[in-house]
Amino acid sequence: MVDNTQITKxxxxxxxxxKNATVHYQLSPQELHEETLRLGQGVESSFGALAVNTGQFxxxxxxxxxxxxxxxxxxxxxxxxxxxPFDPEKFDKLYAKVVDYLGGKEIYARDAYACADDSYxxxxxxxxxxxxxxxxxxxxxxxxxxxxxxxxKEDWLIVNxxxxxxxxxxxxxxxxxxxxxxxxxxxALIGGTGYTGEIKKGIFSALNFVLPVYKNTLxxxxxxxxxxDGDTAIFFGLSGTGKTTLSADPExxxxxxxxxxxxxxxxxxxxxxxxxxxxxNLSEENEPDIYRAIKPGAILENVVLNEKxxxxxxxxxxxxxxxxxxPIHHINNIQEPSSGENPKNIFFLTADAFGVLPPISKLTxxxxxxxxxxGYTAKVAGTEAGVDEPVPSFSACFGAPFMPLHPxxxxxxxxKKMKAADVNVWLVNTGWTGGPFGVGSRxxxxxxxxMISSALEGKLENVEFEKHEIFGLQMPKTCEGxxxxxxxxxxxxxxxxxxxxxxxxxxxxxxxxxxxFEEYANEEIMKGAPIE
Length: 532
Description:
Layout: E1 22-25, H1 29-38, E2 43-44, E3 50-52, E4 65-68, E5 84-86, H2 88-102, E6 106-114, E7 122-128, H3 131-140, E8 142-143, H4 146-149, E9 156-161, H5 168-171, E10 178-182, E11 187-191, H6 197-214, E12 218-226, E13 232-237, H7 243-247, E14 253-256, E15 259-262, E16 267-270, E17 274-278, H8 288-293, E18 299-301, E19 304-305, E20 311-312, E21 323-327, E22 339-341, E23 343-350, E24 360-362, H9 365-374, E25 376-379, E26 391-394, H10 407-421, E27 424-429, E28 432-433, E29 441-442, H11 445-456, E30 465-467, E31 474-476, H12 484-487, H13 496-514, H14 523-526
Parallel strand pairs: 1-6, 3-18, 4-5, 4-10, 7-9, 9-11, 13-23, 23-27
Antiparallel strand pairs: 2-3, 6-7, 6-8, 10-11, 12-13, 12-14, 12-15, 15-16, 16-22, 17-21, 18-21, 19-20, 24-27, 25-26, 28-29, 30-31
Helix pairs in contact: 1-3, 9-10
């Protein structure tokens, strides 16, 4: 006999202005799955996982992300195209309209928390219009035990109403959708979009302000794992660089795949309780951990199913950004709790489509800060309309859309922690070798894994290095399991003069991008720039 007593559990949300609502509180994944099917908002896939369509928005909408500009934020936030100011009075009026909209409806509430280290724990109450959005919150935030719910008081409130449409002329938004952070009232207000990533990135953005300003802790958009000896490795990288793939190592336990903090006590902790992975072209052979995590409790977003409920992972007719969310315990080889000590190696992953950067190089503290602020990768031809040749893509701190402070503040924190912990920092190019995209070939995953393993095992400590002529990076001359000619990218090009021209072209892109940070960067960071 199934115990359905939990489905009757409820709380009042009237203190938040939500009146006469039917509130489903702390439902289990199975109950939320069934609620979604009951309401016709999703279907069950052949994996047993729920499949939903997020509607008009299948990704974040950066131009519709705002931060309330008030006494807390006005002098600390780096205002501009990424952190767009929002008027406090407009926020209050819009919040009132959203909670009024939710009044009288059947809605879903959940208490959870972020930050696996109890010293930094952030209690979160999530209020969702849709049950599958609440299931996403169950998967992605850390799950509170029953005894932790007694007397629970949230530090932050998330109000999520995908069906509410703002009136831009009245409400101060750009269009009908919005994601607004209010640091004084500690509210993330999301409306007009069903894309669940706005929920997790709202709290990530909040922590990117709270942790450095109040907790002396560096927030990082990265994955992390830990070895048998207790050494922690950190992987920064933008989409398509291999962050998830390379941190999923059978010899090491996964701490988390996306968002972490680095404390003053030199520990690393996961913000989240789950993973939100891309599934475009997913296969069990190439990404076994993610593939096998798609089971009851997981949510597939914007995938295409056939009549048998089977997923066509290559079908991008809805979006390229097809995803799955699942709790971290769907992965077998995990670190429990999701934290680690003794960080010894940091990897900056880039997919350089110009074929210029070395497959692995060791960075000085200044170079590490420079490349961290730059956050470089490249778009390749064919990925977007009008892209006919490689295009450089820079995202400060490998996560610019979520960073409320100036990037140099995070970079200086990283430099101090690197020096204090005596961490090795490596730049790893998972992109092209032997020429740019269209001429050369993608670096073999087997070689990249060998290079990262050699770095982790200390095998590169005593090898001979040579300096890259243009970027000044230290390149190992030998690495176990990797042909030596691969290690210096210039050696892989048939036309070395063409290589030099392309390297200088990329160097100029770096310098042009960095020009907007120069007035804030210290001398050490500026010394990390390309030589010419």
